[in-house]
């Protein structure tokens, strides 16, 4: 006998043998048991998932010679031994006509079918027509079949299998029972492949079978076809073919996903050279850019799902809904979880969008290699750019007269006729003030490319006052960080502050007196002097823009005020904060595994918002895990905010008495006061 491919050799012959379509098989078996047979069925779904197979099994069950409940046929399953069952299985039954609708799609063929349907079956109970690829039938042919479908003879059953049910007219679909087939799950394909490998005498490890199941992409027939090809190319050991993962990857022309994990690690580290080097190695090995982009898109999709489902680096929480969404092996689930922890959900979504566009462009571009490399470089650039949401959040709401959180306004101040002005912080006498109306940004200028040393984060020369003709200097808009205390030495004296401008930051009580120094013909270059001389460069040099303590306090406060963020607040409160080289480095006591679990994406987003509100939005937040096997640091108590409910509770005499008598500890305070 000629060799049969695995997809035909192991084609199911019973409803129970069909994998992954229980919702269809159970319904059909119940209909057979209750004798509720419809005259028209539409089976739709993915390729290679059992549509035509179930149509043949249903035809066998309808024309089986043995009655349901008999000794030979106790269930609605076909008996597989009678003459009708064997003929239908062999494909030579007279009363079961299988038609390829892709070639017999015209109105003439359907008219012949309609005329033949009037005659009763030659031997069996039903005359059954199986129309494969039914969506290929023309509209005119479907219209010719409408009357027969609406009022068919009692001996006729139509079964239509299609991958595009939307192309079948609604008038036809309304006259038939429509069954939508599901893509076969990875575990079901894996179980079938494992059983077939045992029956075929093939030695295959789990990694190889997982690759075959993933390559099937929900199609059992595709997985069996690739397995048949892999067995033919496999080396033979002791008379048995041996399948391994490396051989199957080479056969399918794919690369291991560890390569894409390395690319994402290089993207996270802002290492463009490493990204291009890995791409060059893949392309020089003969891999197609389109195939690489396609595989990378699938890997990014798995990373996005792993991020949404909360799958950890060790593959935890990969069951349930996460397992349904991620139809990959356990090893690949852990790999996707590791890559997902490096980025936020928004970043992974942007990466996926860029690679999808790159994959589309590779279909009609001449230099595919260059466009693939460009797509990978865009991923590195996305890590350097600020999100548009963060930029827009620094502007005031449209039409509002109040400034946003990152903008300070200079109020108009009328100068008195005589006498000195008073400093708004210390009450000290200062010089007369000019009438001015300026807007001052509290956020320092920054570059979106944080690591690019060729761009300067803050250009001091741009803030230095230009030469101004005496005697009336013009006030200068000075970039100042929000919520920065004013040093005492910045208060100007009466003789040095001729023509000063009072700039009030928002509604705060703190104010800064700034004097642009008049420049004469003899001295146009700034002269180094004491901070109170009024020169802007000296003022900026004397007041640091960012303080690690203030940034830590702002981050802890915003987490404490948020819901369900007490644990991240405690972790950051116990951490060591430093500001260096354009980064806010937070050295925590958490391990590398626990760090992304405790300080999750929501907490990290709140911390970044706090840094932006404090004027440090241009700095990059770097969370560092603690030393391995280091003991946990003692948790220091966090001081209650002045005026808060916890602070008032601590001051209550009954609470203080309870602490003294019972050594009580206040863990949570619920504020039941009226918010108004």
Q: Say which CATH homologous superfamily of the largest domain is assigned.
A: P-loop containing nucleotide triphosphate hydrolases
What does the largest sheet look like? 5 strands, parallel
Strand order of the largest sheet: 2-3-4-1-5
- What is Rg? 38 Å
What does the overall shape look like?
elongated
Structural class: alpha/beta
CATH fold type of the largest domain: Rossmann fold
In percent, how much strand structure appears in the residues? 5-15%
Helical content band = 40-55%
- Please give the alpha-carbon distance between the first and last residues: 89 Å
The figure for the number of domains is: 5
User: How many strand elements?
Assistant: 17
Flag low-confidence runs.
Answer: 399-544, 628-635
CATH architecture of the largest domain: 3-Layer(aba) Sandwich
Helix count from the secondary structure assignment: 27
Could you characterize the architecture of this molecule?
Helices cover 41% and strands 10% of the residues. It is α/β, with parallel strands linked by helices and 676 residues long. The chain has 5 domains: 175 residues, 3-Layer(aba) Sandwich (Rossmann fold), CATH 3.40.50; 67 residues, Helicase, Ruva Protein, domain 3, CATH 1.10.8.60; 128 residues, Zinc Finger, Delta Prime, domain 3, CATH 1.20.272.10; 141 residues, no CATH class; 91 residues, 2-Layer Sandwich (Alpha-Beta Plaits), CATH 3.30.70. The strands form 6 sheets. Strands 2-3-4-1-5 form a 5-stranded parallel sheet, with helices on one face. The longest helix has 21 residues. About 23% of the residues have low confidence.
